[in-house]
Amino acid sequence: MAPSPGPAEQSPKMWLNPKLYRTRLFLDVVRIFIFPTVVLFQACHYARVRLGLLSVPAHVLAIVLWGLTRNIIYDVKQAQEARRLGAKPVARIKGKWPGNVDILLRMMKAFKTAYLMDVYLELFQEYKCTTLNTRILWVDQIITMDEEHMKYVHATGFNNFWRGRRQKERMEEFLGDGIFNRDGEKWKMHRVTARPFFARERISDFQLFDKHSSLTLNLLSRITASGKPCDAQDLYARFTLDTASEFLFGNNLDTLSLSLPEPGKAKMGPKGSATNDEFGSFAQAFEMAQCVITQRARLGYFWPVSELKKNRIKEAGQITKKWLDPIVRRAIDEKAKAKRAGIEAPISERTFLEHLAQSTEDVGLIRDELLSILLASRDTTACLLTFVTYFMAIYPEVGKRMREEVLQTHGLDQEPTYESLRGLKYMRAVLNETLRLFPPVPLNVRESRPAPVVLPVSHHPTYTASSSPYPNAPFVPTPTEPLYMPGATPVMYMPMLMQRNPDLWGPDADIFDPERFLDPARTARLAANPMMFTPFSAGPRICLGQNFAYNEVSFFLVRLLQQFDTFTLASEFQPEGSQPPTHWKTKQGRQAIERCWPAAALTLYVKGGLWIRFGKAQN
Ligand code: HEM
Ligand SMILES: *[C@@H]1O[C@H](CO)[C@@H](O)[C@H](O)[C@H]1NC(C)=O
């Protein structure tokens, strides 16, 4: 399917550089507040009316009436359009306060104490549907956990969506021209350039995995020898960052050599536990930027209000640029030198940076692309490793069975190969089951292009309300009519809720059970509806690094399980404020049984880190 550069690229609202968020806010303020007051002022002037003391209330009234009128006109137009398209508008949330301010406050509160995305799940349950319009501050925002609607956004209706104006505005300063922040031709160019690099020969070059796995496990052995627990999440973040930096730009960031968070002393960092020294300024800026982008997304359309004085991402952007730009320049110089000397390395020997330098000399473009792929590859992979370790810790029989499989196929020290990893059926099922319950990208956003779209009718073919005795089922009735979605409107989709939906996965949807990926009766359901398991997304923008990720994670786990055989939660070392709140125990779903605090900042992570005692095997 060839995505065309849809009409939005020429949309009149697009002239504004997405970096200029203050200007955008100013224009909105003019639109909402200034216009009616100026009109009133002029009207009084011509009519020679003096408002005197009534001036302030009159202006407030003018603003309100203006807003109401605009809303009514907008609603009428939407209803007409929906009828014309033969669809029903997506159900709107009806809060108690005007502008659904109470819903906004409920969400803000939930981000602090509730289980990840439970506030959305509750809303879907309340409204008995899988797609809603939040209408916070009268702004349309679609949220969905419906697999058919996600399929439409990603695949069948791909051309009607893009990453969109608002997302660009939030990320521009950090990801700029990178693959994650572009649509249309520019995105396609990135995709075409990056693709050969993920060919089988490249991703099965395991030397890199071996080097960094060994370094990580040596470090881990030293820690366990002194009887200490370790923040597994932090360790994996270093492992994946060092691996990715060497893979991408041939420059090992070597964060494994910097000082690690100390058990019992570590405080909460922006995501996991904080280290006392700087975890490399690059790594920290990289994480900080992700947190700011997430914060902006949570605040919604009017986030620029909170950053009028200070652009909170600028500094992080500068740090990463300062670090990456010289590396990029060097690669471009080297390419020129090699060209003059008449030598050219084959793609199999190039780093991703060298590969990019072949196609352009635009330092900014290459840097933005590197940063995007670093973001894509590093946090996601670390997240998967973290949650696999979590499950091995809370379900020791899972770790045991994985280890048996590893020892049977690889013995105690045989190095994994591309082929040998294929044989690890149980491990693959564990990875899939972990990706189902904790997809590293648990929610994400797209925007409809300026033309309105029709979301197709859902079919939940698997479990029905009556067959599901589960307390949080059913979400049915699923929509039986196509839904109308306005143009230029964001849609936030939630693979995590979809992949835990009992209507799709059965009454035990919240239970960790790798067997569901091995049992033929259950895999048949998945085969009939592949959309219900899409941790790597779907359609033309599906993850490019899926196999790379499975390989890196499996390689590491084989090496880990050859040496270690027990994994125990060391919850007493969780930094203050990162223990799961006690009120979760009384609530629905996984939160009643969760023993860590899952949170999300673009990608999923464990609040305060995942403190684990790794037990060395006495082979
Ligand atoms: C467990 C690990 C991973 C998961 C769960 C994952 C998941 C995803 C998801 C959900 C997307 C779609 C994002 C969106 O469209 O907004 C994506 C895109 C992408 N991923 Fe991954 N990913 C993983 C690992 C990797 C790795 C290791 C690499 C590279 C080495 C990578 C490279 C990419 C790239 C380049 C894209 C952008 C594709 C595009 O926009 O056309 N990913 N990934
Ligand atoms: C894991 O999921 C992937 C993607 O859906 C699938 O291709 C693979 O067969 C699954 N493997 C196992 C063992 O479940």
From TrEMBL:
InterPro entries found in the cross-reference section: Cyt_P450, Cyt_P450_CS, Cyt_P450_E_CYP52_fungi, Cyt_P450_E_grp-I, Cyt_P450_sf
Any Pfam family: p450
Amino-acid positions noted as binding heme in the UniProt annotation, renumbered to this chain: C543
Cofactor list: heme
Record-annotated membrane-spanning stretches: 25-44, 51-68
Record carries keyword Ribonucleoprotein: no
Alphabetical keyword list: Heme, Iron, Membrane, Metal-binding, Monooxygenase, Oxidoreductase, Transmembrane, Transmembrane helix
Molecular function GO labels: heme binding; iron ion binding; monooxygenase activity; oxidoreductase activity, acting on paired donors, with incorporation or reduction of molecular oxygen
PANTHER family: P450, PUTATIVE (EUROFUNG)-RELATED
Family: Belongs to the cytochrome P450 family.
Name recorded for this polypeptide: Cytochrome P450 monooxygenase CYP63
